[in-house]
Structure to design on (317 residues):
């Protein structure tokens, strides 16, 4: 017998079928779902985040969905605290925590602990935003590469949120974010983990899925959803944490008249594909040297069955 209770990580890029597989599992196994998604925490952001619909949530309730307003912020530290508390509660009920999502930083924080990074500093961020408005985020990315080449190498030049955070950390501490992460004290997660990574055997097919899904979001009223957000939360800006979720910044720019809906479609699809690329890069990094991570082809028509078989075998050993 393992000394720790079981828990499951079901990880994968956007549009990899994580939610469908997880919902299917709830009717077959004693699991409770904890969402590991930095976008699903926001209320009233349903279409653009591909949030599970009401029928899905009735069938398979998700923890950590719709917990804060779009004007609020949520961090990896917040997630770790909330997830650990929920995992204890779920285990006490005789169920197994099933953590499902694509925010790899949250998975990393939960499993490895936190690095002691400084809290966000509004003054520093405002200064960085002003500088970026003048020289552009690709140039800011180049500046990051000079002080923290390791972090810069895994970020795209247009990944504004993470570039800003890495530069903020350097300005506040005088040290590279990668250095602080490397120095962090490992904290043992007191669970017997099964880690499943859903990865595509053909990246082009995943890209096609992403395009189809974004087009469906537009048809389902994504632009109208963002209009309602602006009306209900007048303080929202493109720099708000919630509006940095993929697709929302582009929708705001479209509504501001910067480009038409056809370009919104193209930019939204491109941004989502870039997100998937970053998620897969994180997954490869997390899986490297960890033989206990099981990779499954998310394009396999029998994906739900494959996921079920792996988890069923794990919990019956």
């Amino acid at each position: 017998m393992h000394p720790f209770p079981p828990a499951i990580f079901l990880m994968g890029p956007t549009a990899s079928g994580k939610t469908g597989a997880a919902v299917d599992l709830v009717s077959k196994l004693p699991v409770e779902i904890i969402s590991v998604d930095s976008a699903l925490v926001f209320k009233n952001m349903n279409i653009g985040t591909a949030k599970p619909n009401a029928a899905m949530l009735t069938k398979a309730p998700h923890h950590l969905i719709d917990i804060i307003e779009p004007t609020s912020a949520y961090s990896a530290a917040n997630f770790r605290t909330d997830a650990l508390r929920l995992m204890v509660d779920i285990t006490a009920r005789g169920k197994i925590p099933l953590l499902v999502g694509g925010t790899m930083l949250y998975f990393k924080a939960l499993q490895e602990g936190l690095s002691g990074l400084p809290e966000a500093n509004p003054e520093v961020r405002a200064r960085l935003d002003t500088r970026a408005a003048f020289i552009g985020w690709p140039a800011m990315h180049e500046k990051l590469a000079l002080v923290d080449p390791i972090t810069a190498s895994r970020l795209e030049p247009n990944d504004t949120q993470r570039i800003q955070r890495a530069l903020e950390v350097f300005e506040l501490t005088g040290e590279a974010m990668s250095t602080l992460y490397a120095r962090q004290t490992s904290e043992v997660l007191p669970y017997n983990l099964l880690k499943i990574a859903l990865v595509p055997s053909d990246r082009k097919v995943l890209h096609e899925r992403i395009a189809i899904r974004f087009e469906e979001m537009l048809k389902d009223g994504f632009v109208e959803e963002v209009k309602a957000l602006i009306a209900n939360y007048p303080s929202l800006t493109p720099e708000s944490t919630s509006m940095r979720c993929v697709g929302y910044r582009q929708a705001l720019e479209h509504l501001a008249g910067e480009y038409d809906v056809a370009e919104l479609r193209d930019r939204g699809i491109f941004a989502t594909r870039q997100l998937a690329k970053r998620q897969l890069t994180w997954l490869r990094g997390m899986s490297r040297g960890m033989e206990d991570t099981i990779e499954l082809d998310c394009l396999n028509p029998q994906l739900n069955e494959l996921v079920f078989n792996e988890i069923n075998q794990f919990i019956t050993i």
